[in-house]
Specification:
- Helix 4 packs parallel to helix 5.
- The protein is about 35% helix and about 15% strand.
- The strands form 3 sheets. Strands 2-8-7-6-5-3-4 form a 7-stranded mixed β-sheet, with helices on both faces. It has a 4-stranded antiparallel β-sheet with strand order 9-10-13-12. A two-stranded parallel sheet has the order 1-11.
- By secondary structure, the chain is α/β, with parallel strands linked by helices.
Length: about 400
């Protein structure tokens, strides 16, 4: 199968520092930040030498720009975006913020990313709800699997839009429609696709999105966002919140101590001590997410689809099997494969790492996640290492 590289893809490739000592195919594990983001952090470090040169407005300019950029990426509104330290913070906000009744069901899928279990399992004892874990009827979890598991007691379906272990992509709109028909809500973890495939919350129908920032948003570890549909703010129980999320906190000379009210938007869920220019992670995230918006998820999706299809085409069929859907519409921005046994898969993974081809081993699958800095040559390198 032949592939072509556009001049647009080639141009964006120059925006990263070259990784000279490895073939890096592991963006789903940790993204290398583009040059512009590294330089932004360096400038912020310099500014910390002379903090008197920064006005109070600096505290709000960076986080507000990020909210606007994320809203562009997902088709939402800036006021619906909270800035967090990762995906888990958003799920926790939903778990603690909603009112539960004993016997309420939360549905997730078997083999989901651990945050689904660490967020919801403790709520069984705390609130009396029941976490229902759905197994796929075929190889990959589907909308039909989740819809079939709905009962009158289901209050929430909480799952990944793209699975971390096999790259399968959920038909979220169908799940959302089924949930809403019976008054349930849908929470999507979009960590493994936001910034790498086009998405629009209005079409997805989700009620909440959570995402880590250190993957396809090209930001540092310890970044992320939480999106909540505006109309759900009224469902949230009162709880502690960050002091800079107080309504009117942009006026440091007249803070409200006696009766602080949370901001009337998603800012109330900002991670404490987070949303400020002087958080260097946030400075990098600001520039990185803007970079992702300018680059366009459509370009990343098309580029990665070509490389993953090339990989599947060139893998020796007698030794390996695809571990992701072959249909690109059912797959996220990366692909997985496996050898004929878990032991052999682990051996090939170790050999790849020894040869400085950096991929991930996830639940018995070798996960290959390229980006615009990768080329066909990188896929050829991977194939040459796993082919005697």
């Amino acid at each position: 199968m032949a592939t072509t590289t556009t001049s647009l893809e080639t141009g964006w490739r120059q925006e990263w520092f070259e990784i000279e000592d490895a073939t890096y195919l592991n963006l789903a594990g940790q993204s290398p930040m583009p040059k512009v983001s590294i330089r932004a952090v360096q400038a912020a470090l310099e500014a910390k030498k002379y903090p008197h040169q920064k006005p109070d407005s600096t505290f709000f300019e960076v986080p507000n720009r990020i909210r606007t950029s994320i809203a562009k990426l997902i088709g939402g509104k800036p006021d619906e975006v909270a800035l967090t330290a990762g995906a888990s913070a958003g799920v926790a906000a939903v778990a603690y913020g909603l009112t539960w009744k004993p016997g309420d069901e939360v549905i997730t899928a078997k083999g989901e990313f651990p945050l689904q279990y660490t967020a919801w399992k403790p709520m069984e004892e705390r609130e009396g709800l029941k976490l229902k874990i759905v197994s796929p009827r075929e190889r990959f979890i589907t909308a039909d699997d989740l819809i079939a598991a709905l009962t009158p007691r289901t209050r929430m379906v909480s799952v990944s839009m793209v699975r971390y272990d096999d790259g399968s992509r959920l038909d979220a709109a169908r799940v959302a429609e089924a949930c809403h028909r019976q008054g349930a809500l849908l929470l999507l973890d979009v960590s493994q696709c936001c910034g790498a495939i086009p998405m629009d919350v209005n079409q997805l129908g989700a009620d909440f999105l959570v995402s880590a920032g250190y993957k396809w948003l090209l930001s540092p570890f310890g970044t992320g966002f939480f999106w909540a549909k505006s109309e759900h703010l009224g469902l949230v129980r009162p709880g502690p919140f960050y002091w800079m999320a107080v309504a009117g906190s942009d006026n440091f000379a007249a803070l409200n101590f006696e009766d602080p009210q949370p901001a009337a938007n998603a800012k109330r869920w900002d991670s404490p001590e987070w949303a400020s220019y002087f958080n260097f992670n946030l400075v990098a995230m600001d520039v990185s997410v803007d970079f992702v918006v300018r680059m366009g998820p459509e370009l990343v999706a098309a580029h990665n689809q070509k490389l993953i299809e090339l990989m599947f085409d060139r893998l020796p069929k007698d030794r390996f099997v695809p571990a992701s859907p072959l249909d690109a519409a059912r797959r996220g921005p990366y692909g997985c494969f496996a050898a004929r046994s878990p032991e052999k898969t682990a051996e090939h993974y170790q050999h790849l790492r020894k040869e400085n081809v950096v991929v991930s081993l996830r639940e018995g699958n070798i996960r290959v996640s390229p980006h615009l800095y990768n080329t066909e040559r990188d896929i050829d390198r991977l194939i040459s290492v796993v082919t005697p």
